[in-house]
Amino acid sequence: MKRFSLLSARAGATFMSPAGLLVGAFVIVPFFWVIFVSFTNRSLLGPTALNPDFVWFQNYIELFTSGRGVEPGTFGFSLILTVQFVLFSALIGQALLGLLLAWLLQQVPKSVKGFTETMVIGAWILPEVVIGFAWFAFLDYDNGTLNGILDALGLPRGDWLLDYPFWVIVVFNTWRGTAFSMMLFNSAFASIPPSYFQAADVAGASSWQKFRDIGLPLIRGHVVTDLILITMWTFNVFTPFLLTRGGPGGQTEVLSIYTYRVAFRDFDFGKGAAVGVVVMLINLAFALFYLWVARKRTPRKEAT
Amino acid sequence: MGRFAHLHFSRVGFTALTALIGAIFALPLVWFLFAPFNPRAELGLAIPRPFSFSNFGTVLENDFAIRALLNSLIQSVGGVVCVAFAATLASYALSRSSLPGKGAVTYVLLLFSSVVSGSAAMVPIFLMISRVGLIDTHLAVIFVFAGGLLPTAMFILRDFIDGIPRSYEESAMVAGASPTQAFFDVALPVIRPGVVVVVVWAFVNIWGSFLIPFILLRSAEKMPASVAIYSFYSEAGTPIVTLLAAYALLYSIPVVVLYLFVSWKFGFRFFGGIKA
Amino acid sequence: MKWKSVLLALAVATPAAAQDLTISCRCVSDGVNSALADWIKESVIPDFEAANEGVTVSLSEFAGGDEQLTQQLALDFSTGAGADIAGFDGFLIPNFVEAGLLKPLEELVGPQVNDWEGWEHISDGSRALMSYDGGTFGIALGTDVRMIFVRADLLEEAGIDPASFQPNSWEELLDAARQIKEAMPDSHPLQLNAGVPMGEATTMQGYWMAILGTGESIVDEEGRYIVESQGILDVLNLYKTIYVDEELGDARAQQLGDGRNRTFANFRDGTTAMLVEGDWFYRSVTAPGSEFEVADRDEVMTWAKMPAMEPGAGWNGQDYVTISGGTGWVVNPNTDDPELAWELLSFMNSKEQIDEFQTFQPRISIRDDVEVPNEPFLTETSGALLPLTTARPNDSNYNAVSAEIQRMTEAVVSGQMSPEEAMARYKEAVTEIVGEENTVSLM
């Protein structure tokens, strides 16, 4: 069958140019600057701000060969912690919960849909400063909402921020970020023609069957997109800082907080840039893994 | 009969589960519901007695903070328009082009943008903006945000566009439409849910971001709310919880309104045009 | 030819008509450092403009975190932008100077800066707050001192006479805390800052106040960082006694993100009897009308000097110790008109303007000819403590080492590490930062 050329080369170039200019200036140029800086000892302040030396791979080597092993405060510790943080809060938390919510929202009464959707999205859109306060108020040992509820239920109260700091940031990040996955999956489900589901209804399929056999396969591409994005965001997310400042005792110093400390408190841009590059490579590995899994599950790619 | 009961049961179960999740999400925000109206709010949860609007009175008197809300609106709307416009065109062109390796382009840009956002890249950005003389302008903030958010926006949108069969536009062109017409009249309506996601996402990002405007702007008249919120700190630098909470409520309203508007306007009527 | 263009450029740079100067600071009317903003807007600017026809001065007010402000200043100074006079924390001067972002006043403005009348009224120590490597880069606005703030009512309840209360050793300090704890088992009688969340407050109000009491400092006379010593162990054991062994202080407050506010609230609510803080705690935090206002402050709040570990065992052989820091102003090296900028800076620090500042917010001035009016508390504490004080080392690595000190204290306070383990880790970390040749072990 003859294929129409949907877009002439010239029209294509015109379509690309606004994005090309903006991305070129504010993403590609800074990106190569960061790469270059990661091979120098450039700092924001101090003697090496003016005359940085080219140090080859020294920043990278230092990241992985701290004399202090993987105890809190080292890059190694932050790296392992962040991978766990991504697994629990992004993949299990945000993606799974977002998928569940998106599916549930398709089939519940409008009032409940409105309420739940607003709450989940509220968690996502409120300004950071406020979220910080709200969570302090929520988790406070003496007067916090959570301990108040536990008291009312006759359950033991907890000193959440001190005794379970990792789980606090996992739950917090799930709470904060689920909205995006929910929205994306919602839109994805919405772009499945309703007739598909109507046919399944006629055949008497249960909700689970419809989800497994129609919904999920059709939005598989969106699932991969979502996983790639939330993995990347969770690697870079800085909001746990609001709750724990990376503590207590460095137990929640995820990579973003580590970078912040290195780049903006110690002013060591070279090392901070090297962390950024390592994180990028890890993200690449995660993305390739997702694509590989998605491809393996689909013996044939549906024709477009 | 049995199956009907089962369906009915699962519908009730789904509703209860959804409401429960919503309630759990609401819990950390309960404080935020009360504190703005409590003239003596602290970090503990307390029901305001008396219920008062005095915090809002004080906040509204702060010209700097109120103007900042307007600035946030200018910068966010400007940034979102840039992002949505440029991303839609570019991802459509990418999706429909026959460039080799085009599949990797959006992903590579995405990775680049993650490195840039998570590190010291403010330095070259600042130097460029300063070189072209755009320091302390709304335009600088809008462009820098647009550039930074575009890779993600394109990544999301291309995914939506790839999902649309080419046959839609092809049949339009068989019927005599030009490629540009095919884009605006056929493709655009179909990718609208994706654009909605991008718009809301970009708006939220710009609306809440502190560092970029703080670094690029200088005069108080142009600072957005994310910077102005720090004026509700006491002489000693400690947060004034009452005023912060009230201002934060004002600060949150536009985003909530945007979301409600967008989902009301575009969210539900998607399959009006095309039936597959 | 060349000279001509220089002259031409000069002519363009200094138009005879209007001239603009800007001042920037971390200050906002009705917000953070409100008194400073009000003083500049209501006193400095109108008076300077009246004295210098054709010059307009404006203030750019900023509120935000210190890290972001530092970044903004660094970017501004490196591109030739920024306010002519910038508010500046003294301990950042070495970092900025070594990055080539500041110039000594003498070089920037000319030798006339040395003729300023104010220098005669500013002690060498105070001048050093804004100096580095032989150059002076600005003028400090004021300085501060640190002490133990005491709740007299709680002491009385525990049977201690607040009027004569002055511990003379760490043991006496701990004994007082134990006595209060016994009378009020739920209280946290003694709070000495530790931990990462409080940042520099941990180092200044906590660690320094203790380490100086052992006769040591953070660096030796040659500026090498002390990474291993009996003094460090003594300090860490003091923390351990306070927070772990005897639970005399609120250890949670030292580890939580909003911990500093908790210590303020504890003091306000009468659960902390002795809190080591700077005079800022009196000037701003507990001042009438503020969130942590102490009810009936003049009656229930008093102070004591921080004792050395043993009498005479403190830094310089002192019985009591304290440390000072200071913020001030620098002249932006990119200013269009350095002479005019210096004129404004010296005007801001003239006796008349500093006297005026005292009406906005009384604080310890660095000018010896400026009285602190009607503030017996500040007069008394500065009189007693300024002769004892010292300052942080003028070194561009201090910032990073200070962060390691915060981590070391947190490890002990949280019970994660013993003092010996925490010191061993501190040694490794500091050696990584400054290099082995810049460290010294005293053990």
How would you describe this protein?
Chain C: InterPro entries: Bact_solute-bd_prot1, SBP. Chain C: Residues 1-18 form the signal peptide. Chain C: It is found in: Periplasm. Chain C: Keywords: Lipoprotein, Signal. Chain C: It holds the Pfam family SBP_bac_8. With 304 residues, chain A is mainly α. In chain A, 72% of the residues lie in helices and 0% in strands. Chain A has a single domain, classed as MetI-like (MetI-like fold, Orthogonal Bundle). Chain A has helices spanning 9-37, 47-50, 58-64, 75-105, 110-125, 128-139, 145-152, 160-163, 165-190, 194-202, 207-218, 220-236, 240-244, 255-265, 269-297. In chain A, helix 9 runs antiparallel to helix 12, helix 12 runs antiparallel to helix 15 and helix 14 runs antiparallel to helix 15. The two termini of chain A are 13 Å apart. The model of chain A is unreliable at 299-304 (pLDDT under 50). Chain B has twelve helices and no strands. Chain B has helices at 2-26, 30-34, 54-61, 63-96, 102-117, 122-131, 138-162, 167-174, 179-208, 211-216, 225-228, 241-267. Residues 268-276 of chain B have low confidence and may be disordered. Chain C has 443 residues and is an alpha/beta fold. Chain C folds into two domains: 2-136 and 326-391, Periplasmic binding protein-like II (D-Maltodextrin-Binding Protein, domain 2); 146-323 and 394-441, Periplasmic binding protein-like II (D-Maltodextrin-Binding Protein, domain 2, 3-Layer(aba) Sandwich), CATH 3.40.190. Chain C is built from 19 helices and 16 strands. In chain C, strand 4 and strand 5 form a beta hairpin. In chain C, helix 10 crosses helix 19. Chains in contact: A-B, A-C, B-C.
